[in-house]
Amino acid sequence: MTLNRVLLACLLLGLAGWWFSARPGRGDALPAAVHAGSNRCPLPPSITRSGPPLQSDVPGGLAPFPMAGSRLVPLAGFSLDGRVLSRKDYRSGRETDWSPTDLALGWDGMARDEVLDRLDIRQSGRWYHYRWRDDPPLPPREIASSSANMHMIPASTEVARTLAGIRAGQQVRIDGWLVEVQADDGWRWRSSTSRTDTGGGACEVVYVCGITAL
């Protein structure tokens, strides 16, 4: 290859790298259904200290949040000050119309370094998995009740951009609503409202009004 061809190839590679690095990340944009909705998201009662998430009643006058081809029915107010154990972005599946990102979150014992250092934590298929060698660092029941995989539905571009920058290990504050997504074609996606359930249906579906890295 001649010198001119080498220089041309390097230039083209550089331009390609600039183009893809300059494009906004998937997490910067709102999911399709949310982008076309009203993005109305009043804040629920907020947690005042770290610990288990605060779950509150839905006010009588709070109507479902309208989205394109769907609506989000609030099941409970939700406020969490917890640690990000893992994050996973998704590009396929019906759920991505609303939620492109899952966060595995922990609180109480599941926010401590000495516990997390003994766990292998992964996410896949909209699930959160953990395992340990030898003895568990906490009783398994406590691990399950002090952590959860949560499906994030950003209520605004600002929330989506903040969510895009969240990484494992950070402490975050999340305020919003546990919801059931009701699509016009009959498809449903319902949040858990329990901290102690496991298995299918145990993840939270969170309409995120605000998120802050602490």
Description:
With 214 residues, this protein is of the alpha+beta class. Helices cover 20% and strands 36% of the residues. It has helices at residues 3-22, 32-35, 113-116, 140-145, 157-164; strands at residues 54-56, 65-67, 70-89, 101-106, 120-124, 127-131, 147-154, 171-183, 188-190, 204-213. It has a five-stranded mixed beta barrel. It has a two-stranded antiparallel sheet with strand order 5-6.
Oligomer: single chain
**What structural category do the secondary elements indicate?**
alpha+beta
Calculate Rg over CA atoms. 20 Å
Poorly predicted regions: 6-27
Mean pLDDT: 86
Separation of termini?
53 Å
Number of helices: 5
Q: H/E order of the elements?
A: HHEEEEHEEHEHEEE
Strand order of the largest sheet: 3-4-7-10-8
Strand content: 35-45%
- Estimate the global geometry from the Cα principal axes: globular
Chart the SSEs and their pairings.
Elements: H1 3-22, H2 32-35, E1 54-56, E2 65-67, E3 70-89, E4 101-106, H3 113-116, E5 120-124, E6 127-131, H4 140-145, E7 147-154, H5 157-164, E8 171-183, E9 188-190, E10 204-213
Parallel strand pairs: 7-10
Antiparallel strand pairs: 1-3, 2-3, 3-4, 3-8, 4-7, 5-6, 8-9, 8-10
